[in-house]
Amino acid sequence: MDFTELLKRRTIRFFEQRPVSRELLDRMLEAAALAPSAANRQPLRYMVVETAETVLRLLRVSKYGGYVAPERIPEAGKTGPMAFIALYAKAEELQSTLYADAGAAVMSMEFSAWENGLGCCWVGAFDKTAAKRILNLPEGDEVLFLLALGYPAEHPQVERIDEQESIRYYLDDAKELHVPKHKVSAIAKYC
Amino acid sequence: MDFTELLKRRTIRFFEQRPVSRELLDRMLEAAALAPSAANRQPLRYMVVETAETVLRLLRVSKYGGYVAPERIPEAGKTGPMAFIALYAKAEELQSTLYADAGAAVMSMEFSAWENGLGCCWVGAFDKTAAKRILNLPEGDEVLFLLALGYPAEHPQVERIDEQESIRYYLDDAKELHVPKHKVSAIAKYC
After folding, report:
1. Which tens digit of pLDDT belongs to each residue from A18-50?
2. In chain A, what is the straight-line distance between the N-terminal and C-terminal CA atoms, in Å?
3. B188 and B130 in one domain?
4. Which member of A6, A93, B111, B113 lies 3.0 to 4.6 Å from A43 by CB, making a disulfide possible if both were Cys?
5. B183/B110 Cα distance (integer angstroms)
């Protein structure tokens, strides 16, 4: 799949209820391992959650789809993710460069997922204390993000907008998701 | 180029002295525009710097290649970047999610660049006050990162390492750059 196709990737919140192979999860982790890292320090660590019970527990402490709740809140066993990849690090690493590293790693994993027919939802709004307990992380570690994933059961469409238009994604009458993204002319200039 | 090829992307610090077309710069900006953003808010803005004089001024206020200085410090007119893309935002947006957004946008731009034969160096260590002045940004804006870019004049090699091995990149006797990246087994587990 060439990069133009990969750029059709969108956030996926509803998933088919079929398992994701270890091979595809490993490829996502490889994409994360090769992402750039400030001063090449690579402080991020990854925990993959595949068991239905633990996936459900993480789902329960996550909030997502703010503009399209409750319609797009996934339901375990029906539309929920099949796995999570949690990004975590030592608490003393929590600074702006770590979040930048995490963004790059998530983006790389999302492209890997999309190339193999998978979709992801990058979750930043969740109960971090509860997630740490569910993942059995030691005292000094902190969870930064969760990446929910599985085979897409929805097909969100991008809509290109100008700078002043609303960025709120929305469901149309057929419950299809539309995601406004700025046109390049709205966010970039040459100087 | 499929994603396996894109994962061969490495940071590039030495560049050929030939111009980068607007078409390729626009493709990079499109890759940034389509990157995920927390709550889809898209607060990041992009300034492309192409003129030799302004590229030189930004180069002078940047520090890079910490482990391989001074050998890999680019020299304007010989090995320096042909353009910079600066990522900036309103000062009140400076929080962890903005840095995560920026990481995702940089990763997406780096893959777009690599697909088209370009290489990038993601610069986080620079004089932000000076960069803001050089870019003529208004008072309320802050520069987060610079992305130096051009056609690669070096071919860094990745070396896979275990958790306790050194992450310091290095030049070999032939002045080729080697970049240690953790193996997946060193940074990820299944629970």
Report:
1. 999 999 999 999 999 999 999 999 999 999 999
2. 34
3. no
4. A93
5. 21
Q: Is the Cβ pair B102, A100 closer than 8 Å?
A: yes
SS3 B100: helix
For residue B82, the model assigns a pLDDT of: 98
Residue B66: predicted pLDDT: 81
**8 A C-beta contact, residue A87 and residue A147:** yes
Note whether B106 and B140 are same-domain residues. yes
Range of the domain at B168: 156-191
Residue A43 sits in the same domain as residue A90 = yes
Distance CA B188, CA A33 (A): 9
Inter-chain residue contact A100 with B99, CB threshold 8 Å: yes
pTM of the model: 0.98
* Distance in angstroms (rounded) separating the CA atoms of residues A105 and A36: 8
Of A25, A108, A182, the CB nearest to B33: A182
Q: How many CB pairs under 8 A join A and B?
A: 190
| pLDDT more than 90, % of chain B | 93
User: Considering CB atoms only, which of A25, A29, A41 is closest to B167?
Assistant: A41
Do A111 and A163 lie in one domain? The reply is no
A88 contacts in chain B (CB < 8 Å): none
Are B94 and B188 in a shared domain? no
If pLDDT is split at 50, 70 and 90, which confidence band does A66 have?
confident
Q: Is the pLDDT of residue A1 over 90?
A: no
Domain co-membership, A61 together with A131: yes
Q: Is B35 on the interface with A (CB under 8 A)?
A: yes
Same domain, yes or no: A165 and A141: no
Q: How many domains does chain A have?
A: 2
Query: How far, in Å, CA of B25 to CA of A95, rounded?
Result: 30
